[in-house]
Design goal:
Layout (H helix, E strand, L loop, with lengths): L1 H16 L3 H23 L2 H7 L9 H28 L14 H22 L3 H6 L10 H34 L1 H14 L6 H21 L5 H22 L6 H8 L4
Length: 265
């Protein structure tokens, strides 16, 4: 039995030694992304902040501090740490790691064309009870514009971490081994799974969204384009749900829109 186990171990070592450098880097990226997500869910969550850390960030509202902790940890674990792995660990140039500006003209043009679709689409979605129950996640943002703006500012750092983890770290980190098409699929799978607790429409749309954003980022060779696109979706959805909460506006027609916009006053 000992000889059999030794033989199996040697076979495993030989298989690992036979991996190409690109394959080893891809394996490192996928395992690191898995550990970073687990660490964020366990230590970066709001419950951990409240129970283990108290209000260590010192915000007047501890619940706002809990959201700041969640957003900040995502920014660090999804953006800062993965970027260091690729740039300092793999010694990649920022452009190789998806951190450059890439084709910013194309990216900017697409973002401008997409924005009206975001505004219209989120307006329609915000009429659903499931969306109104979830957004904004921080309840005081519905009644206090100062809280709303502070929450959105912190949320932007979250989006940098969320987008770089998938559309930067995993996409660019696995593409040399898997090829761009499979790398786009590879970053979509965990991205969509992490939407499992969202309203059904958002959960299923995340599959299409993950593929589309992955393809766009790869085409532009920069993850940055994904940040304003995803952030704009959530700011718009939060805003529409807030306005509906403030005014009681229901429906998606012009009258409902006029009622909702009165909430800006």
């Amino acid at each position: 039995m000992i000889d059999r186990l030794r033989s199996e171990w040697q076979a495993i070592r030989a298989a690992l030694a036979g991996l190409s450098p690109n394959a080893r880097r891809a394996a490192t990226v996928l395992l690191a992304a898995t550990v970073l997500v687990l660490f964020h869910l366990q230590v970066g969550n709001r419950r951990f902040y409240r129970t283990a850390l108290g209000n260590v960030l010192g915000f007047e509202d501890p619940e706002f501090g809990a959201w700041a902790w969640w957003f900040g940890m995502q920014g660090v674990l999804g953006f800062v740490v993965p970027a260091l792995i690729l740039v300092a660990g793999f010694r990649w140039r920022p452009r190789q790691a998806g951190l450059g500006l890439g084709d910013w003209r194309l990216a900017g043009g697409i973002a401008l064309l997409y924005l009206p679709l975001v505004v219209i689409g989120t307006w329609v979605l915000s009429d659903g009870a499931g969306f109104q129950a979830q957004y904004p996640h921080y309840d005081p943002a519905r009644t206090d514009w100062g809280a709303f703006l502070g929450y959105q500012a912190l949320f932007l750092f979250y989006w940098m971490g969320w987008e770089y983890l998938w559309r930067g770290f995993v996409l660019f980190g696995t593409a040399p081994a898997l090829g761009a098409p499979l790398a786009i699929v590879a970053q979509t799978v965990p991205f969509a799974i992490l939407h499992a607790q969202k309203p059904p429409a958002e959960a299923y749309l995340s599959v299409l969204g993950g593929l589309a954003l992955g393809a766009l980022v790869w085409r532009c060779r920069s993850f940055w384009i994904a940040v304003p696109i995803h952030a704009a979706q959530m700011v718009a959805l939060d805003l529409w749900c807030t306005l509906r909460f403030r005014t009681g506006a229901a429906g998606t027609g012009w009258d409902a829109l006029a009622d909702a916009l009165r909430g800006l006053g």
